[in-house]
Amino acid sequence: MESIAPFTDDYLSNLNLIRQEIAQNADVHIREFSFGQTASRASIVFVDGLSDRDLIDNTILKTLMKDSVAVMVQENSSGDVSVSKDFFINHVLSIHEILECRDVYDLRTKVLTGFTALLIEGTANALLLNTVKVKTRNIDEPVSESLVRGPRVGFTETLSENTALLRRHGENGDLLFLKFQVGERAKKELIIAYMKEIANPALVEEVKNRITKIKIDHVPESGYVEQLIEDNYLSPFPQAQSTERPDRVISALMEGRVAILLDGTPFALIVPVTFSMLLQSPEDYYERWIPSTFIRLLRFFTAFSSLLIPALYISFISFHQGLIPTELAISIISTRQGVPFPALLEALIMEVSIEIMREAGLRLPKPIGPAIGIVGGLIIGQAAVQAGIVSPIMVIVVAVTAISSFAIPSYNLGISLRLIRFLVMFSAAMFGLYGVILFFLLLTSHLVKLKSFGVPYVTPAVPYRLRDWKDFMVRMPLMMMKRRPKMLHTKEPTRKG
Known about the structure:
Blueprint: H1 11-22, E1 28-34, E2 41-47, H2 53-64, H3 67-75, H4 81-92, E3 98-101, H5 104-111, E4 116-120, E5 126-129, H6 159-167, E6 175-182, E7 188-195, H7 201-212, H8 222-229, E8 241-243, H9 246-255, E9 258-262, E10 268-271, H10 283-286, H11 289-318, H12 326-335, H13 343-363, H14 369-386, H15 392-406, H16 411-431, H17 433-449, E11 451-452, E12 455-456
Helix pairs in contact: 1-5, 11-15, 11-16, 13-14, 13-15, 13-16, 16-17
């Protein structure tokens, strides 16, 4: 626990206290000056690089060192500290945010985040001036969630810009932002966003409780928050949706969900989340309902394909050859002649190779990453077939599986399915098709039991809610989706209009 050293009315003792606490940092600067031609002294404390030097020079130092300010300081030097302090706050300093600091611990915390501390002789405590210098990047299209049709706008690392992006989606007084601080040693600002007249108050309160219970030294990215507030940390499935798209966040808020935004990261979290949400894209609502339904069904198919195709191949080749059509079986057997490995080991060699190339492509520089991934896959696959290590049919199976996994819109769901794929393969190698079915039943039972902030993970399938199927595996016309998801228990279940 930090020792709290309160400020006194003695200017020199307060300044020495500040020097002892933070002056040992090389980037902390203390500037002493006088008001005009008087002997009244003052000091400012700021961090180089975090504080805006132009704002400090032109708005603080240039203003305070004028003779007109010195005259007013002399007029208020009768010992009335509150009047003098009010004068600086209300008539001298043209800074939008000014806080009063009563101890050196609070001063250190704010100064090390970009605030400038002002210490004035004859006044108690210190003033904290918001001179935070924020360096931002341009608002670009999200790299991880590209669309053919839709806004080309993504979140940035600046929290204030992200909240402004949500506000720009339309005038709405119901959109509320609640501010929290997370991190025990390095504190960061966190925002909970929700629609006041739509969101379930119990859900909002649950999110607030979980955020306040976060006890960790530092929260560098929203992924930390996601892991610390999820319902079941042992589950391989994500229980919060991460997104860089403001349009996706505002749409979720309109449904009655809650968004979590953290300073320093462009990824926001949406809770609660369901399995079907992770297979949906904002583009589903920007196109007409018939092509959107087809594409959504295709995503569900590719999700199950990426999970089960290698396991089904292993089970049929190793245990259930009689279930394969005769001509296809003869073709597969001819391609497997000379392959020294069983189907499981053959599949593991190719799957591990694909995963290595996928990871290498992410870590390589952007100009050469895609090229290396494509060329590496072609060369390794062709070389493995020519060497007789794997069969051509296995290369096809692995390629179809990899392409199917790329069609999943959510990156973290794709990682989960890739991990589970290996477990299904081992189950198929031990028990054949029965192992695949048994593993699928176990996986389904886990998904049925899993919840995200009290909402069943596979709803509206289980529990069955026919009304919510209008936006589940299919996407019905917008005029038919008049009601919000029943699972969220919103204050206003019907959409306006």
